[in-house]
Amino acid sequence: MQIEELMIKLENQKWLEKAEWIQLIEGRTEQTSQFLFERAREIRNRYYGNEIYVRGLIEFTNYCKNDCFYCGIRKSNQDAIRYRLSLEEIMECCATGYALGFRTFVLQGGEDPYYSKNRMVEIISTIRKQYEDCAITLSIGEKDYDEYKAYYQAGADRYLLRHETADETHYQSLHPQSLSLENRKKCLWDLKEIGFQVGTGFMIGSPNQTSQSLARDMMFISELKPHMIGIGPFISHHKTPFSDEINGTLEETLYFIGLLRLLRPGCLIPATTALGTIDPRGREKGIQAGANVVMPNLSPVSVRKKYDLYDNKICTGDEAAECRNCLTQRMQNIGHQIVISRGDYKGE
User: Fold this and answer.
1) Torsion region of 306: left, alpha or beta (phi above 0 gives left; psi -120 to 50 gives alpha)
2) Is 108 exposed, middle or buried (0-12, 13-18, 19+ CB in 10 A)?
3) pTM of the model
4) What DSSP line would sit under 7-35, residue for residue?
């Protein structure tokens, strides 16, 4: 079957065999990519028009108990300058964001035991009480079922937990033995059962990645049916075991954004900061490939450089208003508008 025919099959059936996924992944050319992006844009516009949703990102701790081989805030990085934001500092970020039109706050951090279940419940419930019209998204890693449920009951709406790879062997090559793909998947299924809008995703071009492992990623997403999918290129960090590995490419990342739009047409898919890091117009190109979310940074400027997941991360010196205004103009330049909205998932 021709690559374009496989894309039409994916668009119509929302499912492919593993061998078909591999053919589709390995059949990426400039011509097939352009065909894909045209289909992805049409599908995205059918659901969301030219509207782009913004999420206010609050990176509230860079402590992490884990030692993932690709991550700059891994616990073994002795050069990391660690920080934690207080409840008052988090609320200041929310106040700034709300005034700028943000109606989703994303609390993201390493897996930091300091932020116990009770501390997180206090943070979530305080934000919920003050900003009833806003969505609260968490991105704080693997927890047990009861802890996730407590967050949901406190007022959190969404949870982002990238699975990173659905291939067992590949997963083990990226993570220490203390982490398992089985538990990561269990967490995602728990979050769905509780009622969260769930986001997952994976890196493009991570060390040891193959077409087979990428096919497994797409099949897992087909099975999980998440509401949000965040993908970005692997970018190395100089204080990790992968410091000398080759980074993922813009072209391949855009291709997967397009494929994901065909697979999950109503999904919320961000054009990530990592895309903007590897290409000055990476986020615009992500939107043109089928994405519909951008995530400006609301974190205090004083800590942004410290949330150092990968090298050369952009926007670490900008004030929140600068990030917001810059992205608004960038989106307008490609015919899209940022809207003041919670930006909820619209279904399939």
Assistant:
1) alpha
2) buried
3) 0.97
4) HHHHHHHS---HHHHHHHHHT--HHHHHH
